[in-house]
Specification:
single chain; 8-stranded mixed sheet; 32% helix
Length: 330
């Protein structure tokens, strides 16, 4: 049966019925928080336990939305006894903010800080045990936030963006040059407060899109299929100005400042966020676990690799932030 409740700092939200799995049962609640005056949509997954539990804060990758494949991770974590806050950045998905599809790195980092602060204050949460979970571009974001201090009890970075230079090299000169005119035009429009010039976030090889590496478009297609979401029901564009920033954003440079336990997972044939750069970042972290898998950038999200990737994430979580539902060694 559905009911209504008030959550800290937000309006009344709808709570959905309990879900039973092989682990703990849990409920999902659609809610949200405010980041610098803009409301970010979030779904809370809350296990049916009485004691305070760790919370995993999650967000989507470059130009994505939280509803594509990320619920599969969140449901698995909730069944294992962890609370989850899964959110869309401002300007994307179900969150507010204008103009739409504006991928501003500093704004997304602010959204992360706001999400973590909000998650700490939710009922039934152990505020000392917040885990940052990020994938692809968000994998870089959790490394960046982790390097700032003691925000996280642990970090999971899946196929993370760690080096802007490496990402540009992987994209190739021709692909970058196809984007450059639109990026410059959009940056000029931004200075004049004009409407953005958009480019596709992913496309086939040779197209004008941010991610055109071989297999990228097919990989995203599989993610939508396994999510049960129609691809044409979501917007897959970004304001082109971000192209000028990606090459300057290298979270791996500050990895040595991360003091909490960190799991970094890479795909050997990743031609978007190269595994070699992520491995270098992992080597700088005081307490890191590094896992490598055969596959491309989008392989961890779908079967058969998804099962191995999520199993390793659970093993890591049970070790560094265990719950009573599934403690160490279980």
């Amino acid at each position: 049966m559905t009911h209504w409740r008030r959550l800290p700092g937000d309006d009344l939200e709808r709570s959905y019925g309990m879900t039973s799995t092989a682990g703990a049962s849990f409920e999902t609640i659609d809610s949200g928080f405010h980041s610098h005056g803009t409301r970010c949509a979030a779904r809370i997954y809350r296990p049916s336990v009485t004691e305070p539990v760790p919370v995993i804060v999650m967000a989507h990758g470059f130009g994505g939305v939280r509803t594509v494949r990320l619920p599969a991770y969140a449901e698995t974590f909730a069944a294992a006894g962890y609370a989850v806050v899964l959110f869309d950045y401002r300007y994307f998905g179900d969150s507010d903010g204008q103009p739409r599809q504006l991928l501003d790195i500093d704004s997304q980092l602010d959204d992360w800080r706001s999400a973590v602060k909000w998650a700490r204050n939710l009922p039934g949460i152990d505020a000392s045990r917040v885990v940052g979970w990020g994938t692809s571009f968000a994998g870089g974001h959790v490394l960046t936030i982790g390097a700032e201090g003691d925000e996280f009890a642990a970090v999971i970075a899946q196929v993370p963006h760690t080096s802007g230079v490496a990402a540009l090299r992987a994209a190739g000169l021709r692909a970058s040059m196809r984007l450059l005119p639109k990026a410059l035009h959009d940056s000029w429009r931004a200075l004049r407060r004009g409407e953005p010039i958009y480019v596709n976030s992913v496309g086939v090889a040779g197209s004008v899109a941010v991610m055109t590496a071989p297999g990228a478009d097919d990989g995203v297609e599989r993610m939508y299929a396994e999510s049960g979401v129609r691809r044409d029901s979501r917007v897959e564009t970004v304001a082109a100005r971000v192209v000028l920033r990606v090459g300057l954003y290298s979270p791996g440079r500050r990895a040595a400042r991360i003091t909490c336990p960190t799991l970094i997972q890479v795909a050997t044939d990743d031609n978007i966020a190269p595994a070699r750069s992520a491995k270098k970042a992992a080597a700088l972290i005081r307490s890191s676990t590094f896992r490598s898998y055969l596959g491309g950038h989008f392989s961890p999200y779908v079967s058969p690799l998804f099962e191995s990737v999520i199993a390793d994430q659970l093993t890591f979580l049970r070790k560094v932030v265990p719950t009573r539902v599934l403690g160490p060694g279980r």
